[in-house]
Amino acid sequence: DGVEALADVTDAANVAVAGAVMDSDFSVDGLMRRTGVGAYTTDDPAKSKTFTVIDPKAADDISVFFTDRAITITQIRAVRTGGTDIDWILYHDTTAHGTANTIVGATSTSSGTGDDITSFTDATIPANSFITYIQGTTDGTPTEISLTVYFTED
């Protein structure tokens, strides 16, 4: 009759013959990209979080975000408006406003396009951690600083 025995069973062989993919074909989540006939990979889209401190002052202590997943920070872009520079530190800890682990300390001197930071003291943030911003000294009168934290999920 032309109907394969057990044709209503979806197995890897039938899926492959049809040119489709199964969930078990991937070991990580992400966007699926075809790399060839019957070959696919996943691209993990870039992730980022941006926060802005208005009228930054020395000793500002701000819990800026919480991550329920382990992440690795790959870059930070810091854009200052007003003043001439701002010293700041980012920390990660299991408590809000905690300072157990320094991610990076930096001085933002660039206004407009910002400073790109790619070297870190500790870029690997465990799951269930808070990220805290602590303001150091400022020169001049800055009106804001905006940090974009780029990361991957581990």
List low-confidence stretches: none
Biggest beta-sheet profile: 5 strands, antiparallel
Oligomer: single chain
Structural class: mainly beta
- What's the N-to-C terminus distance? 51 Å
Gross morphology is: elongated
The amount of beta strand, in percent, is over 45%
- Average pLDDT reading: 86
Helix content: under 10%
Number of discrete helical segments: 1
Cα-based radius of gyration, to the nearest Å? 23 Å
Counted beta strands: 11
What pattern of helices and strands is seen along the backbone?
Answer: HEEEEEEEEEEE
Structure description:
The structure is a single chain. The chain is 4% helix and 54% strand. It has 154 residues and is mainly beta. The mean pLDDT is 86.
Give the secondary structure arrangement, pairings included.
Elements: H1 12-17, E1 31-36, E2 39-43, E3 47-54, E4 61-67, E5 71-82, E6 85-93, E7 101-108, E8 115-117, E9 124-125, E10 129-139, E11 142-153
Antiparallel strand pairs: 1-2, 3-11, 4-10, 5-8, 5-9, 5-11, 6-7, 6-10
Summarize the entry for a quick read.
This protein has 154 residues and is mainly beta. The protein has one helix at residues 12-17, and strands at 31-36, 39-43, 47-54, 61-67, 71-82, 85-93, 101-108, 115-117, 124-125, 129-139, 142-153.
Give me some keywords for this one.
mainly beta; 1 helix; 54% strand; 154 residues; 5-stranded antiparallel β-sheet
